Amino acid sequence: MLKSVNKVIKILIASECILNSAWGFLGPVFAIFIVQKITQNDIAKAAEVAGFATLVYWVVKSLLQIPISRYLDINHGEKDTFWFNFLGRLVMAITPFGYLFSTTVWHIYFWQIIYAAGSAMMIPSFYSLFTKFIDKRKEAFEWGLNSTMLGFGVGIAGAAGGIIYASFGYQTIFILVGVINIISAFLNFVVKEEVYDK
Fold this sequence. Notes:
The protein is mainly alpha-helical. It has one domain (2-197): MFS general substrate transporter like domains (Growth Hormone, Chain: A, Up-down Bundle). It is 83% helix and 0% strand. It is globular and about 55 Å long.
């Protein structure tokens, strides 16, 4: 059945799985990082910072996503969509490297804004490409395949993130997340010509 899935959809699913798996590594680590490095073992303060970091991400992403989506709809060519998908992933990749140098609460919030901006660029463009290239009469299967791959990837990465943290520390996790983000961005160039032809 996978043979019947077109090349663009396969690459989009792979790049999305890789991207989200990268962020899955942070699941068991991010709060520990905030406790140890940002709030100097003040657990209550760390919980507050983690909560507000989540708020900052979702508010900024939500505010930016609609204007970006409208821009992509108005500019009907797939070139813009391709580049927003690519550049959004690169912008997201900056965030874990930024965490490496973070020492204050405001650093965390700043990098959450960068992460949110990248997500706001990537998510609508990814959905647009996926919708335009999805195989007719296989919509449920291909969206389901995308969701299944994400589930496996993020779940495995979460477990691996805990093991890597225990062995090498959070610096290794942040570098790994950033590098894998970059890989997910450049993977899209495998189907650049197909997207441009559309």
